[in-house]
Amino acid sequence: MTRKRGVVAETNGHMRFFPYEEPYPNQQAAMDGIANAFAREQDVLIEGAPGTGKTLSALVPALEFARENDKTVVITTNVHQQMRQFVEDARAITRTEPIRAVVFRGKASMCHIDVGYEECQSLRDTTRSVVEKEEDRQQLERRQEQLLEQSRGGDSGAAEARSAVMDELDQLGDELEDLSETNVCEHYYNNLIRDNTEFFSWLFDDVRTPDDVYEYADEHHLCGYELLKEGMEGVDLVVCNYHHLLDPMIREQFFRWLDRDPGDVITVFDEAHNIEGAARDHASRTLTENTIESALSELEDSDDSRTAAATNVLEAFLDALRRTYDESFGFGEREQVGENWSDIGIANPDRRDDLTLEFLQAYEGRGIDAELELAIQLGKSLDEQYEQAYKDGEATTRKECQTLQAATFLSSWMEDGTKLGQHPMVSVRRDSGTDEIYGRAELYTCIPRQVTESLFEEVHASVLMSATLRPFDVTEDVLGIENAVTLAYGMEYPEENRRTFAVQTPALFAKERNDESTQEAIAGVLSDAIRFTPGNTLVFFPSYAEAQRYYEMLGGGGGLSGASLGSLLLDEAGTRTEDLRQRFVSHENATLFTSLWGTLAEGVSFDGDDARTVLVVGVPYPHLSERMEAVQEAYDRAYADRGRDPGWRYAVEIPTIRKTRQALGRVIRSPEDFGVRALVDKRYTSASDTMGKYGVRDTFPPEERRELIDVGPEKLKFAMLNFYAGHDAYDGEPPAP
To answer: What is the model's pTM?
Structure first.
């Protein structure tokens, strides 16, 4: 029997919302544990299988605690499909519980006139100034009318007071006439002059998506983004993207819009295994050669006394950047630079990086700190001038100050470049328009806790949930969480509905991937798995190149195959994830070849016949790069007391197995679902015990290790035949072994 979503029960005056009519055995315990953690201001790490109600297990006690203690719950994800699910869950709750919920999205996707952030800020300030002066004029006009009546009644003092008011009106009229030449936003203007009660009644009558708000605002010629910001004050629940919490500057504004101190906010992170990478991306800082050139052009038009110092420091850094990447090219390497950024290693183990050394050499004998400070001061002054010019209508767009951007980055580069977890990089790319090569400098943040730790310390409490969050101690270390409550629930669906095989093929090390016998063994396993799957098959590889290799070996793209394997689909660059998923599930017997590091490995559901079998081929370690080595080295230094080789464990092994477990979770999404998961590489088998750090079986949680069944390559088809036949899954006769 399919469990029905969306049942709310009232128990002793407390809200109890279950994702199904009958909660899973551990679900009530999870909600109670989370509620108790909130009372103690503790964070919670919770791992549970897909589809078992993790979101509502966290959301219900969070909303209940928030209602009783005057707090706001913010639930966030970086997966679009999960965002849609949050909206559905929130709507289910609002059908029974009177909560106010807002789904928030960034300005860029909600602007009706398509302007940038700085320009929007200026438009908003100018528009508000116009409206305020118009309101002042209305008040003065009412006042002068009152004084006129009084003066007609013989009040001589009223006549004198009215004369002063008329002078103010004249002055205000001149100011408004000047402002009429400035830039305003008509949508935001309407926000300010209209009564928006009807909008907010509509907004909180249901859980509205940002698209809903955009359409409403567009129809009524309003700014939906600003109305949403206004409507967020004191709401019960906000659904948003990661960057609203992980970017420190955005977070400060976000909490201000909520009208909440951080201590009055409860955060709930879904797909929390992704926080590490997202935080690292938000913390890294870059400066391109083009930005420096723009800053120098900007300075040519400045007659400020600080211009010479700013020009000196930026020209020196630009010259150093160019020399650094020019000297790095070997024979023929410059010609190979493409349109994507390509990293160049500049870090040194015992001294500053090559770019900084080049830069300092140009500054020998001069005061770099003093000139950098003057450059920042000048940048701020120019930025204020651009702001005023836009407000006054002297400029049609709000210009961004390139000098300020460049000088601020350079100051951070010099101050933070040697700090633990900050890795200096240089990258180059080819301009598609001019065919010229240009570079950028980057401070790459290796340790994400430098971003996340302050967040988790500031808010009242946080819940981090995922199907692949373990090992918990590593999650706590990497994100800077202390004294968390940890809850782990395995797959609560019937065990007889799944089989997980570890197939004893050769280990697919990089150096073995071109071995013909290894390829034949893996191709044979894939062919058998596809033939004996009564439905669709998902196959994940360490890279897109490997996916394409076996796609072609099995007959895709005009290749040859010894057996009919149905429709073979390849995940290729430029194909939208949802379009590919829809094309895949529209077939009854299809196989999709993709990379485990692509977009289909997590956050995408394949229910029932959409995918019956999933295979992970090889151990998909991330591509070895200087960035990955920098992260490993930083973790080795930061967590030297955590046992042997913490950098490998934290940066490589555990993220890889999390990705593998995410891929396995694409099938068996409900209690009635059934299917086969196969790990195709002997490093997953019992033989991994003899393979040192390259054996990965022990990295899986204990209950998942217990379910791993070792099977020889030639035996997999028999094991699958027995399993699927036991579920009457074959239409007609099953394939002959």
So the answer is: 0.86
Residue 509 sits at φ, ψ, to 5 deg, of -65, 155
- Evaluate whether 516 touches 504 at the Cβ level (below 8 Å): no
**Which string of b and e fits 11-36 if b means at least 16 CB within 10 Å?**
eeeebbbbbbeebbebbeebbebbbe
Q: What pLDDT is stored for residue 469 in this prediction?
A: 95
Cβ distance 292 to 496 under 8 Å? no
pLDDT of residue 558: 59
Pairing assessment for the beta strands 422-430 and 437-445 based on DSSP bridges = antiparallel
Nearest CA among 707, 606, 622 for reference residue 663: 606
**In the 8-state DSSP scheme, what is residue 3?**
P
pLDDT class for 7, splitting at 50, 70, 90?
Answer: very low
Q: Which residues pair with 613 in a beta bridge?
A: 537, 676
Mean pLDDT of all residues in 70-75 = 96
**What residues contact residue 132 under an 8 Å CB cut-off, 6+ apart?**
none
**306 residue type, one letter:** R
For residues 609 and 675, is the Cβ–Cβ distance under 8 A?
Answer: no
Per-residue pLDDT tens for 698-720? 999 999 999 999 999 999 999 99
- The 3-state DSSP class for residue 559 equals coil
**What are the start-end ranges of the E strands in 78-173?**
101-103
Average pLDDT over residues 511-519: 91
Terminal Cα distance for the chain, rounded: 33
Q: Which two tokens stand for residue 353?
A: 């990086």
